[in-house]
Amino acid sequence: MVQEKIINGVNVSQLVNTLEQIKENPEIALFKFRATNQWINGTHCRATIRDFYGALENDDTRPPVDYDMDEPPVLLGHNEGRNPVEYLLVALSGCLTTSLVAHSSAKGIKINAVSSRYEGDIDLRGFLGLSEEIPVGYKEIRIFFTIEADVSEDQKKEMIRMAQKYSPVYNTITKSAPVSVQLEKN
Question: For FRET with 85, which of 39, 117, 120, 147 sits at 20 to 30 Å CA-CA?
């Protein structure tokens, strides 16, 4: 019986097994994530995540989770949820951290702690349609990691580079995935 190798809470044995299975059947790696959204009132809406498709099957084993989104009063909202651009930072933080830990674990690096902070700059004149020269969306996002591990500063920097290389959210933001938007027929 093979003993499981767990590093940083990541089952590295299972990771290696999954990689081998994907090499044999690449379709296992094809995933489709889904979310729905319902407008509530004003600038308040609610997104729900229920299921996803992956590893050749639909997975509906998790309970649905709702994410309320709204604007602060200064942006005409009522603080019924967080601003959607803040959720983008949350998604980026989760994906970079997960990528950093998973890939470091696969390399056998024991991590004691990882924390990060995220901040982004938006000039609302673009969103408000007051200037065609101002981009709609983040002008810049800055990320700051703190890593506690018994490795050199250069190895910590390499861990961050790995996170950037393998994070789907980071790569979607920095390389702009095509997005199609359509009116669905009732």
Answer: 147
